[in-house]
Specification:
The complex is a heterotrimer of chains A (333), B (293) and C (380). Chain A is mainly α and 333 residues long. Helices cover 77% and strands 1% of the residues of chain A. Chain B is built from 11 helices and 2 strands; from the N terminus they run ααααββααααααα. The longest helix of chain B has 29 residues, at 2-30. Classes of the chains: A mainly alpha (333), B mainly alpha (293), C alpha/beta (380). Chains in contact: A-B, A-C, B-C.
């Protein structure tokens, strides 16, 4: 009973506590530098949740998140700069267009079995997107990128200051986290997990692998598209070189470090991967080496990700300080 | 024209083949992918270059010895990657191994920037730069040299795998990990060995291409993904498939760039790859219904 | 089990402590008594070489200025940040420099897209930015705080075309460029320059940055039998492309813009760059005494010859020093001083116009015996 309660806490309550804690940061400091890192962190969180749905829950490796992200960013940027659409229309449209791209990747991905081929299909997709962005100059302005992407407005107030972006981003993050928790707890989410565990047994209980796999691709693409749209309006300028393979890899690292198949883990992973390299700036030329070493250590030594590590640590400390309570031991294993 | 495109495609393709071989060897033996392969390639080139030109009190070595030093360095890096990134994560799944390897690739690249700087160095050419001319076709002697050495390395690998005890053990482990374990072949040993041999191949490819490529900390990132693609194209885990896949990819890229469009060259080769793995997922020389990749 | 777990906890605690320590260090902001100048550039990632050269040029300038008593009696201090060539990272670097390091001005980024992302932050923080990216749009954003310290692509390549056609009488010009910002912008400038003379390129081929094999495009170029092939792209790529061009039998004159004469490119070309004609602001064999003393002390410090990026890092610091010396430490005063400054640097004469373009003329050079040689206009 208690273990179940504990799990319930982690999946349903903890994510909002985490977002709440981050949202309180401006009470301490409104330092624009920290705000920038946290806005990026918020964008990463959305990307990480998308990555977790397809890879963590449904078990399909996806190294093409940069492609979906770029599709979202460019759709939003083009709609607002060329057609003067408002951000509030451009955001859902870019989610939709990215979702269509998700179908385009998800359907061919059905034909292949196994991680290695999926890696190739998804990286090829992201590669094709980048080539098109670079070469279709009349639409995308090619490598020069798009500048002057307008700021969104709420009523008459332009979202321009870092602090406004901070609140806007985390409001969207909170909505997405809420929906994602509902999704993974629903029949759809359970079908994803069933497919991950065993395709044959999932099929035997009436779960269509084709439908749910494509759906998982679409969900993650939609989230990446939303993240891309926010990124474009926040940065006000985008160019193809920002959407390279490194971004797809970053999405993967975020969920491995934060926690695979976990929404709160995605929050921790996204924010951690935005903060971690900035902390290491103090190391100057050794920043990148320390970053890589940190990633290796985290992947090798944190088997369940940063979040569960933290939960375990809290459990253990509680055990030390409180009277020995045997029930809490079971939950951890 | 088309012959010229094919010949230059074969030259770059033979290097893809070497890297693809490294990928396939690791996959068939250890069931893992070393996504830091490109950085092993790069590190070998830098080490060989340093050995060739001498550093500090160390004397400059002749070319052959420098190649040996570079290849040994590559195999040691492979050994470390296996024991730190692959073995520790083997029970946790592909994602963890992928993450750890990506960490290694960044680590090696940024270490190379710290040690050798980011500006890059020219690897002295070991062979004439003057092109040979056959009719209207030009062939760079360097390309012939690369193809020759690649071929030699593949033949040596073949004999190593089929004629030596260690090679037989590696193949046995590849064919059935459980049975090999029962027969007393230690996984850790054969796996380490597989990684070392594969890294030797990647390292050799790096040193071979160094005079053609210019040695920079970033030189490996493109080659690694091309080699991986070539390996999948040929049938992942298949040794002859890797060779064929590499050559095919080289030629395919060159022809699509030469005859269709150089700006969309990469997009076209990506597309062809996706089509091939969709309609022939086991690869060109893979065994249908074989092990799931 | 329990001991393993407590070990993990210990490791975790240690990690947290280390991170906390690093945070505290990074939170420390500088005292205001120093004059701090920020440097943003890629020092890791694919374009690491650019940032390294830029930073080394800047370091040399600071060392020289401080050895001569600093600026207004105060030492100059550099704060270096690695942007990895990525826009979001460049903004993070800039934020850190502005809000943590209290910089008075920033130089960088070396590339155009990170620079464009930095512009809104600069406009808001109201401090001068000495930019090195060469894409035309950088100075077209109505940002009064931006000053470009390199010749932009249009200036560079249209003057190269003028030189090749007007002075050298070439007519069949092929252009081979990368598919990124620099290559496409450069190719457009060349096509525009030729169009002014009612001419067109005979071949226009491109490659993806980082490609190692260019044979198919080069075969297409060879078939058009050009007089000149102009190469535009990353330094290593251009060198490899030139080498492979010679290997498949292209015998045309080679040409390019600044960067193509760098040791990196000429080294990668392995002999194929011999005779190459280039247009650059900075040419290391320029007999000018200022250039020569820069080149020799740079080589002494860092072991290789400076190129365009090193020179722009060096000039940027001297420009800022001159402006601060004249106007004091108020950013708006520094900006006005920069706008009115006329300064002879190693890249040429800086005279910033209303949009912030500093360099308006090019020098020409030729690679002879593997070294870029100055083409003395008075002695042709």
């Amino acid at each position: 009973m208690k273990a179940r309660h504990h799990e319930n806490f982690i999946t349903h309550v903890l994510p909002f506590i985490l977002i709440g804690v981050i949202a309180l940061v401006p009470l301490l400091t409104r330092d624009p530098y920290l705000m920038h890192i946290l806005v990026l962190g918020g964008i990463y969180v959305i990307l990480a949740i998308g990555m977790n749905i397809i890879t963590g829950y449904c078990g399909q490796i996806n190294l093409g998140m940069a492609g979906f992200f770029a599709v979202g960013a460019y759709t939003s940027a083009l709609l607002t700069t060329r057609l003067s659409l408002s951000f509030w229309l451009a955001l859902p449209t870019s989610a939709l267009v990215a979702g269509v791209a998700g179908v385009l990747v998800g359907v061919p991905a059905l034909k292949v079995r196994g991680g290695v081929y999926l890696v190739l299909i998804t990286t090829s997709f992201a590669g094709i997107v980048q080539v098109i962005l670079n070469q279709w100059v009349s639409l995308t302005k090619g490598p020069m990128g798009i500048v002057g992407i307008p700021a969104p407005a709420i009523g008459n107030v332009l979202i321009y200051e870092r602090i406004h972006w901070f609140y806007l981003t985390y409001a969207i993050v909170a909505v997405i986290v809420f929906l994602a928790i509902r999704l993974v707890g629903s029949r759809i989410g359970r079908s994803f997990v069933a497919l991950r565990e065993s395709e044959t047994s999932a099929q035997s209980i009436g779960i269509s692998p084709a439908f749910y796999k494509v759906l998982a691709f679409v969900c993650s693409a939609v989230l990446a598209g939303i993240a891309g749209s926010i990124y474009a309006h926040y940065m006000t300028t985008i160019s193809p070189d920002a959407f390279g393979f490194n971004l797809s890899v970053l999405a993967l690292i975020m969920i491995v470090v934060g926690g695979i198949g976990s929404i709160p883990g995605s929050i921790v992973g996204g924010v951690a991967l935005a903060l971690f390299p900035e902390w290491l700036r103090a190391l100057g030329p050794y920043q990148s080496v320390a970053y890589a070493a940190g990633i290796i250590l985290a992947v090798v030594f944190l088997p369940k990700g940063l979040l569960m590590m933290g939960v375990d640590a809290v459990q253990l400390i509680r055990k030390w300080f409180l009277a020995p309570d045997e029930t809490s031991e079971k939950e951890v294993s | 024209m088309i012959i010229q495109l094919i010949i230059s495609g074969l030259a770059i393709g033979s290097v893809y083949s070497l890297v693809a071989l490294a990928h396939s060897l690791i996959w068939s033996g250890v069931r893992a992918v070393n996504f830091a392969q490109g950085e092993v390639f790069m590190a070998a080139a830098f080490v060989a270059l340093t050995a060739l030109s001498g550093a500090g009190r160390l004397p400059a070595l002749p070319f052959g010895a420098a190649v040996l030093v570079g290849v040994v360095a590559a195999s040691l890096i492979g050994l470390v990657i296996y024991n730190v990134a692959i073995r520790t994560t083997s029970k946790k799944g592909f994602l963890y191994a992928l993450g750890a390897c990506i960490g290694f690739s960044t680590l090696l690249q940024s270490s190379a920037i710290l040690i050798w700087g980011s500006t890059g160095e020219q690897f002295p050419a070991q062979i004439s730069m003057v092109p040979l001319r056959v009719g209207s076709i030009f062939i760079a002697p360097q390309d012939l040299f690369i193809m020759g050495i690649s071929l030699t390395a593949m033949i040596i690998l073949y004999f190593f795998l089929s004629k030596t005890r260690l090679g037989t053990a590696m193949r046995a482990a590849a064919q059935n990990r459980e049975v090999a374990g029962l027969m007393g072949i230690s996984h850790r040993l054969t796996d380490s060995l597989t990684f070392m041999v594969a890294s030797c191949l990647a390292g050799l490819a790096g040193i071979l291409l160094a005079p053609k490529f210019f040695v920079t900390p970033q030189m490996g990132s493109m080659i690694s993904s091309k080699g991986f693609t070539a390996a999948v194209l040929g049938g992942f885990g298949s040794i002859p498939g890797a060779v064929l896949g590499g050559l095919l990819l080289g030629v395919l890229e060159n022809i699509s760039a030469g005859l269709i469009s150089s700006s969309y060259k990469d997009a076209i080769s990506f597309l062809i790859m996706v089509l091939i793995i969709m309609f022939k997922p086991e690869g060109l020389l893979g065994v249908k219904g074989g092990r799931k990749a | 089990m329990a001991t393993k777990k407590s070990l993990r906890i210990l490791i975790l605690l240690a990690v947290v402590l280390v991170i906390a320590a690093v945070v505290i260090v990074s939170q420390m902001s500088r005292t205001k008594s120093e004059i701090v100048i920020g440097v943003v550039g890629a020092r890791t990632g694919d374009n690491a070489a650019l940032g390294e050269k830029q930073a080394n040029g800047a370091k040399l300038a600071v060392e020289e200025i401080n050895a001569n008593g600093g600026v207004r009696g105060t030492e100059l201090v550099l704060a270096l940040e690695d942007s990895q060539g990525l826009p979001a990272q460049a903004v993070a670097c800039l934020d850190k420099l502005i809000y943590r390091e209290n910089v008075l001005a920033v130089i960088g980024d070396c590339q155009s897209s990170p620079t464009l992302a930095m512009l809104p932050v600069i406009a808001k923080a109201e401090i001068p930015l000495l930019a090195h990216g060469t894409s035309l749009s950088i100075t077209q954003q109505n940002n009064p705080w931006v000053f470009r310290t390199r010749a932009n692509d249009v200036v560079k390549f249209s003057s190269l075309v003028g030189f090749l056609v007007g002075e050298m009488n070439y007519s069949k010009i092929a252009v081979f460029h990368d598919s990124a910002d620099y290559g496409i912008g450069g190719a457009d400038a060349i096509i525009g320059g030729l169009a002014e003379r009612s001419m067109d390129v005979v071949a226009n081929e491109s490659w993806t940055p980082g490609d190692k094999d260019f044979s198919s495009q080069l075969i297409n170029i060879r078939n058009t039998k050009p007089d000149v092939v102009i190469f535009i792209g990353p330094m290593v790529d251009m060198g490899l492309a030139m080498k492979q061009a010679r290997q498949i039998g292209i015998e045309a004159q080679f040409a390019g813009g600044a960067g193509i004469e760098s040791e990196t490119t000429v080294g990668a070309a392995a002999g194929a760059a011999e005779g190459l004609i280039f247009a650059a602001g900075f040419i290391s064999s320029n007999p000018d005494s200022k250039v020569q003393s820069f080149v020799s002390s740079f080589e002494e410090h860092f072991g290789y010859k400076p190129d365009d990026f090193a020179a722009t890092g060096y000039d940027s610091i001297y420009l800022l020093a001159a402006a601060i010396e004249e106007a004091g430490t108020d950013p708006a005063d520094i900006r006005d001083a920069l706008a009115n400054l006329e300064y002879q640097g190693v890249e040429g004469t800086f005279d910033f116009d209303s949009v912030g373009e500093g360099l308006h003329t090019m020098a020409y050079g030729k690679v002879a015996n593997g070294v870029p040689t100055y083409f003395d206009p008075n002695n042709q």
